[in-house]
Design a protein that fits this description.
single chain; Aminopeptidase
């Protein structure tokens, strides 16, 4: 399934994400040489409706047309089929950012092949570029808090999220090989998102090395994802007015990355329904009662929380989640 090439096909850099299927037969790994041989690995379009990564990569490579890259670059162009239809993934597909690691499906084996290729090439660093469907600041995600990983993350944003769930994401697998980061670039199609991603890629491409110096708390706002919030399939939900089991305000995305005090109203619940959310901690335990309660027909926070990635996109909520819950993560060294 994996298409491996070592040169840029004619017309590729002029082709937007929804049209890549006209030039590429499927998921493609592109290797390009550079002055420094250890490659920068970039994955884009793991979700077919998140176009910023591909827009930034094609502008990056077009900017070096006729010139040798400062460092070798390997680009994995992921779910081209879903990009054709502007979907996260299609009904017959797995989520391309949940299948990095062990598994026996053809898609799992394809990702294992990508990892094997990059391990052989002694990958220097890894960047996975994504968009959010909800309104969020631009932020970086890491899977451990080693200094070089945080140094890489703050090149993109001082807002950094450390997480170890969900499993199977690209950055977690590549974190075993090199400094790895996921960058969340706001909404797809936003020119500022593309510009920010491109600036970050240029900075990383020109790096000789990453520092082992400890990141000071003055230079980073570090959060830790402690739980994932899902809506059970049996619960009918919607936004604003409507005959729903659970009804959120349409402006609920404003809560992202804000500290919400205890008793904040998140939505309205149909009388007689006692549970509307599934909330799992990092070990997979149900912890909903720690974070939310239903009082007088309203869904309220039981304690102070910081949510992230709240979205009003019902398709994304069903396929992935409603949001994540975070806490401030202390910097143990200054």
């Amino acid at each position: 399934m994996l298409n491996i090439i070592d040169q840029i096909p004619a017309g590729l850099l002029d082709t937007p994400a929804p049209e890549l299927h006209t030039l590429l037969p499927g998921p493609t790994l592109l290797h390009l040489p550079g002055l420094r041989s250890r490659p920068m690995f970039v994955s884009v379009l793991l979700h077919g409706n998140e176009h910023t990564g591909w827009e930034a990569v094609r502008r990056l490579l077009a900017g070096y047309a006729g010139r040798r890259l400062p460092r070798a670059v390997s680009v994995f162009i992921g779910n081209i089929e879903a990009a054709r239809y502007n979907q996260r993934f299609l009904d017959h597909q797995p989520d391309y950012n949940r299948i990095w690691g062990t598994g026996e499906t053809p898609e799992h084996k394809m990702m294992q092949q990508v990892v094997s290729e990059m391990k052989q090439r002694e990958v220097f660093l890894s960047i996975d570029i994504h968009n959010n469907t909800g309104k969020n600041p631009h932020y970086a995600c890491v899977n451990n808090t080693y200094s070089r990983y945080l140094q890489l993350a703050i090149l993109f944003s001082r807002t950094v999220v450390y997480f170890i769930r969900p499993k199977g994401v690209q950055s977690m697998t590549f974190a075993e090989l090199c400094p790895a980061v996921t960058v969340e670039c706001g909404t797809s199609g936003d020119s500022n998102s593309t510009r920010h991603a491109l600036d970050f890629l240029v900075r990383c491409l020109e790096l000789e090395a990453l520092s082992d110096h400890t990141v000071s708390s003055q230079h980073i706002d570090l959060y830790h994802t402690v739980a994932i919030v899902k809506i059970p399939g049996s619960i009918n939900f919607g936004f604003d007015d409507g005959d729903h089991d659970l009804c959120f305000d349409k402006g609920i995305e404003k809560f992202n990355f804000r500290e919400l005090p205890e008793a904040t109203v998140m939505g309205r619940v149909r009388p007689g329904i006692e549970r509307v959310l599934d909330i799992l901690d990092e070990q997979g335990n149900e912890v909903g009662e720690q974070y939310f309660c239903i009082e007088d027909g309203k869904l309220r926070t039981r304690r102070s929380i910081v949510p992230a990635m709240i979205t009003v996109n019902t398709d994304v909520i069903r396929k992935d989640c409603f949001c994540y819950i975070m806490e401030r993560y202390p910097m143990t060294h200054e």
